[in-house]
Design a protein that fits this description.
The complex is a heterodimer of chains A (266) and B (287).
Chain A lengths: L1 H30 L8 H7 L2 H35 L1 H11 L1 H4 L2 H11 L14 H23 L2 H10 L4 H12 L1 H17 L2 H7 L6 H11 L1 H25 L2 H15 L1
Chain B lengths: L2 H30 L8 H6 L2 H35 L2 H14 L5 H11 L4 H10 L13 H25 L4 H8 L4 H29 L3 H6 L7 H10 L6 H35 L8
Helix pairs in contact in B: 1-12, 3-7, 3-9, 4-7, 7-9, 9-12, 11-12
The chains are: A mainly alpha (266), B mainly alpha (287).
Amino acid sequence: MFEKWLYRVIIALFLLQVLLPFVGLIQFTLVGGSGALSFASFATLFSDPSFALSLFNSLWLAGAAVLLSIVIFTPPVWHAYLYAPKLLRVIEAVSFVPFVVPAVVLALAYVQFFSSGLLNLVGTPYLLPFAFALLGMPFYVQVFLNRLRHADARAVHEAAQTLGASDVQAFIRIQLPLLRSGIINGSLLVFTISIGEFTITQLTTGGSYVTLPLYLLITFTNNPLEGSAMAVVTLFLAVAGVVAALAAASGKRRRMDAVTASKEAS
Amino acid sequence: MRKTSLILVYGPLLAFLALFALVPIVGVIFSSVWARGMTAEFYAQSLSGQYLNAFLTTLKVAFWSGLAGLAGGGLVALSLWRTRWRWLTTTISALSGVLANFAGLPLAVAFMVTLGASGLMTNALQTFLHINLSQMGFNLSSSAGLILVYSAFQVPLALLVSLPAFSSIPDDLEGAALSLGCGVPGYLWRVLLPILAPSLLGTFALLFANAFSAYVTAYAIAGGSINLIPIQIGYLIDGNVSLNVGLGNALAVEEMVVLGASLWVFAMSVRLRAKRRANVKGGLPIV
């Protein structure tokens, strides 16, 4: 009896610990200004033209990163899965690069490498979609591979070939529709990571290109109320992204994806 | 498949990895030991004075937040596993999946308005319990404050990583231990803990790496007032101190070595678990 109560207390303390900061955030956003319940901080935020601009900047960067991930990662992972299992293991291992090389080190490397000559990209936003695609690579590859295994892509591909389809025909007309959900889930994770990326954006552009996270920090410094409204909005965007990705992923993979995804944010 | 189509399939990936990962990173490693000749100067610099302090502070924050995360997450996983509430386990796993992703800016802002100088909790403690946090020496941007903030994502992460290890313990193990005269605490301490040790060590290594590389949360909360390796690297890029590329590169290489080593430990623990699962059929616990 005592044991059961001990476990309940531990679980309750855990919930208290992890939820309290968010209760504090929502409380501050809604009643922090005047002491009475008010949505004024959201009104200020949404009528701020620089909010719209940073939203636009973040959306196109995240969209570009998703497109890059689909185009660059999908064909080689698919091909290696079917024809070159050893190469697939290499691709998988390489995809984990962002875990050993954190964003701040990548930023340092980019600032030196892309600062002269043909690839003078430091200070422009054009480097960012590539950097975001690299940060998202482990998640995209894992989610897509999971779908490849789950959908038994190999058997389907062999059937298509027996019926006379070429590799390219089979890839475009049969494999892509079959693997669509993997591509969509991977894209969602890349999108969520891109929307929240702060480090590389700030350090390679010197803070001159304002995306949602940069805008959040600037606003919070100037006007904490509007800043915390912004944090609430970001949280909702992130929750929507993660929940959509988790809900779509199969039950067994859920924990793994969440574990790997969590490496990114810090 | 013809050669041209193979190039079309693998070419973009190779070019992408070369341009945005391999070459820039090799460049960092190379110029950390090279300035008109081989030199250890940057490493000497990076391991002295404020940079040595930064290294030690980062180790301290990563170690304690990893340990706190492991203890908290491990206890919650144990509780969920022992109470056997399916729906609660599912709900809390999903919640942790979301929470473990909330490092970074939103979390930093949430903590600042909750436990900052005039935050919700700070005020509530003052009003109802007459506890003044700042008089007690608590400061969110100290290393103790950061350890507390980090545990908001470390505990859920530890829970997610260690829960599968708990649930793969066979049910009859407890009965066997109890019938041999070992009480519940003895079962947990002397049977369960040794079985779970490799998994827990791996979890700790993952949490350690996670905190060791955390930049955004620390930057937003503490900015210039805490001396961490990622923060120092960021400063060197920003040019807040006179630009010393070689020093930044040396710090970056040290960061990569620490992360590489901890993630290697994590990978080994995952592999050990897979190996046990393959070797042991039936009888023994599979963790």
